[in-house]
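Lab notebook, bench 4. Still working through the backlog of constructs that have no structural model yet. Next entry is a single chain of 368 residues. Request: give me the C-alpha cells for it.
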Amino acid sequence: MRAVLSGGGTAGHINPALALAEELRNRGWEVLFAGTPTGVEAKLVADAGIPFKGFKASGFNRRKPLSLVKGVAAIQKSTGEAKRWFKEIKPDVVVGFGGYVCVPVGRAAESLGIPVAVHEQNSVMGMANRYLARRAAAICLTYEHAAEALDDAARKRVVLTGNPVRSSVLKATRAAGRALLDVPEDARLLLVTGGSLGARHLNQAVIDLKDELLSRPDLHIAHLTGRREYESVVEQMALTEDEARRWRIIDYQDRMGDCMAACDVIVSRAGASSLAEISALAVPAILVPFPAATEDHQTMNARSYVEAGCAYLVADDQVQTPEFSEKLLKLLDDPSERERMRTAARAQNATDAAGKLADAVIAAANGR
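Model written out:
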C-alpha cells in the first residue's frame, strides 16, 4: 500500500505528517511526500529519508488581484503535474496536512478517484483543509472545535485523532536533555522558547526576571531566543561567567524533544506542534499564544488544555506584568503544582495520536 502525504509552509504542518509517515511505515506502507520545492518541508522530509516531489503553489493577497491570478495559475499547473505523477505511482490514499500545496495535490487525487484524507492540527481549520474537506473521505481533527467550519455532511466524516508527535520526541529522555544542556540532574530547569524566529515580548519578560530567577541557586535556564532575537538578548542579559553557567542563551535547538524532557517548566507559544509535544511529554507549562495567529487559533489551541489543568495561560500583552511573573515563580517553586499539571497532562493520552490518524487514513484508503 502506498500513501502520499502533503503539506507545506511551516513545521507545524510537517511534523505531524512525519509522525504519520513513521506509523504507516511501521505498518508496512510505502510513504512519499508532496510539498513545495523551496519550503521548509523539502529539508525536513529529506532528513527523514522520505521520497519528495515538489510542486509550486503560492498564496494570494485579496488587495492585490495579480497575486490571485498568479496563485490560481500555479495551482492549475501543479494540479496537472500531480495528476501525471499519480498515474505513475498509483497511490492508495493522499493525506493533506495544510498549506497551499495541498490544494493542487488534493485536487489531482480527487480527479483520479484516489481517496483523500485531511488532518487539521489547529482549533481553526486552514484554507487548504477547508477546501479539501468538502469531498474528503476522512477529516481528522486535533480539536473538536475545528469542525465548526464544516457543513453537516462533512461533519459525518470527522474523526478526532489528536495531533501526532514524532517518535524522536516521544522517546526523548530527561538524562539526554540534561546532558545536551549541561544541567545537573538535581537542578531545576526552566525552558523558554518562542519558536525558531523568537518572541520579543516573551524574551523581554524573562530578561526582566533575570535577578529574581538567578536568586534561586539550583535553577538553570535554557533560553531559546530565536535566531533574530539572539544578539539582542545576549546584549541585554550581559551575563557574567558565573551567571552563564546557569543561564544558557541559545538561538536555535533542533533537539527540542530532549530539551522538553529535561525541563521542569516550559514557557512556550501554543502552536499546534509545540502544544502536542508539551502534552505528550507532560511538561508543566505556561503558554503565551502568538497574538497574530489566524483567528487567534493559538489561544483556542491552548484553551481546552489549560481548562484541563495542564498549563497556565498568559496573553502576549500580559507577559511583562505581575500576572506572568507570579504564575512562573509559583510553578517553579511549587513541586506539588508541577506534579498536578503532569498528572492532568498524562490523562490527555496525547501519545497515541499517530496510531489513531493511521487507522483513519487506512480506513479511507480501504473505502470504509
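Notes after review: The longest strand covers residues 30-35. The mean pLDDT is 93. Flag for follow-up if needed.
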